[in-house]
Structure formats: structure tokens, C-alpha cells
Amino acid sequence: MKPRHVLLTLLLSAITAGSHAQPEETEQVVLRTPEFEVTTRDFKYYVESNIVEAQRERTLAREGSVREVYENLYVTKAIAARGEQNPQVDKEMVDWMTNQYRERLLMQRQLELEVAAELANVDWEAAALEEYTANQQNYEMPDQVSASHILISTEERSEEDAEALAREVLGKLRAGEDFATVAREFSEDGSVVGNSGDLGFFSRGQMVAPFEEAAFAMTEPGQLSEPVKTQFGYHIIRFNEYRPASLRTFDQVKNLIIPEVQRRRETQLRADKIAEVKTGAIDLGLEVNVELLQEYEARYAPAQN
Fold first, then answer.
1. Which residues contact 20 (CB under 8 A, 6 or more apart)?
2. The CATH number of domain 143-244, selected from 3.10.50.40, 3.30.1960.10, 1.10.10.10, 1.10.443.10
3. What's the predicted TM-score (pTM) here?
4. How do residues 133-155 score in pLDDT, each as one tens digit?
5. CA distance 61 to 17
6. Rounded distance between C-alpha atoms, residue 130 and residue 6, angstroms
């Protein structure tokens, strides 16, 4: 990363950008001007509030990332210091917004702690099993077909020429030539380089209708279709295997269910706690100036025709 500010480059020259370095236990000054300082605590809080924990180590390991954080902090404080001296900046409103933001953060942290405490002893595997048992239809695997194909495109040739070539290719396959080899030679599906025409398993609704109908109509492994026309051209389809519909076992899906159950429980519990305050279920000794409230409602009510 090329430095963008000469002064900042000098100030940062002593910083090591090691990705595994831990924040200092005691606050230390990294950047200093006569008006403000940027400290290791600034860095710690900036990182914790702006970078998701799971991505933090990888993000900071990128060359220049640590310096960029300190640079962002420096720029913010430098321009804020100018704003502090500018009489045109409404400091009273800034203070109100700062306090509002602080209160919202306190609310979020308090809700997080309350929700975490209530869910600390939940048996999530049992909760997931309850969800699985009650909604097994959500964990059904539809019937599937495994097939391979060779595509003869109509993009740069006529339909007649494409069908003729498709039938020529079909003849090679029926004569015993290896499907993967023929696919790599003739197929114009861009994925053929990596899969030699093998599409793996797919369910109904995943392929265009004519292709799906032909694939699901076959029953014998190795069976070849007649050329099937779609908007992409002509396909030669080889049936590989049929997999009937089945219910996935709990062990197969529990690692998918548990995070979803956790998310729903957390969201509902958070909403319940907010509702308790809104509805007065938690008595905070609230007093309401009804006349003033009604005055404000009337002030912003839509005008009557």
C-alpha cells in the first residue's frame, strides 16, 4: 500500500503491522499533535466496532491494514478538531446526537447481555430436534436425477446444422465411444472443461423444461436420449442415476437448524424485551404530559379538507 500522506507516513514509521500482535494492556499514544492524540485504545475500539470478529485477524493481516486504521482515526480526529473550533458547527445538536448514539449503543449492549443470559442454558440440539420434528416437510429431499450432457449450440449455426451434428455425436456414443471424451471434444457448454459433461444430481425445476422432462423420463443407467432441443441448442443426455425423494435425517441437518433456531429465539426475545418497555409491563414510574403530547400530535396531523 503506497502512503497517502507524508506527515502520517512519518508518524506511522514506528508501527509494526504484524497481524498477530495483540493490543497493549495499557493505553499508549501512537500519533500525537498539539491538539489531539491517537492511542492504542482508539485502535482497539475502532477495530472491535467496525470489523466483524470472525474477519478481524484476516483483515488486519493484509499489508497496510493496521496503518490504514490509524490513518482513519487520525483524519477523523484532525477534521473533528477543526469542527470543534468552527462556530458554524451546531455543537448543541452534535452533543445531542452523540448522547443519542451512546444511548442506542447502551441499549444494544444491555439487550445483548440480557438475551445471552436467558439463552445461556438452552439445549440447542434439543431445540433443533423439536423444530425438525414439527416441520419435517422442510427437510424433505425431492427426487433427483444424475445426468451428463453434450450441448451443440445454435448460437453460431443453424438449427438444422446443430441437429445434424447432435445426431452425429449420438451415433459416436451409441457406437461405444467414451462419453466424457466425446463431450470434451464436441460439447459447447462452457463447464465441460471441468466436468466433462457431468451435471451431477439435480431436482425438478432446476433445468429448462425440455431438458428436465427428458432426463426424468429415462430409467436405465447409461441410457441416451434423442437430441433434445432447448433455447441453448441440442442436447444429448445420458442418464446416470435416479435418487427417490427422501427425508433427511436429523443428524444430516441439525447443524443447519441450530443457527436458525438460535437466531429466531434471540430475535424474538429481543422483541419481547422491547415490547415490555413499550407496553409498560416494566414499571419505570412513567408520567405523561398528555396535553403537550396531544398538542404535538395536532401540530403534525394532516390538514383536514
1. 57, 61
2. 3.10.50.40
3. 0.62
4. 999 999 999 999 999 999 999 99
5. 8
6. 61
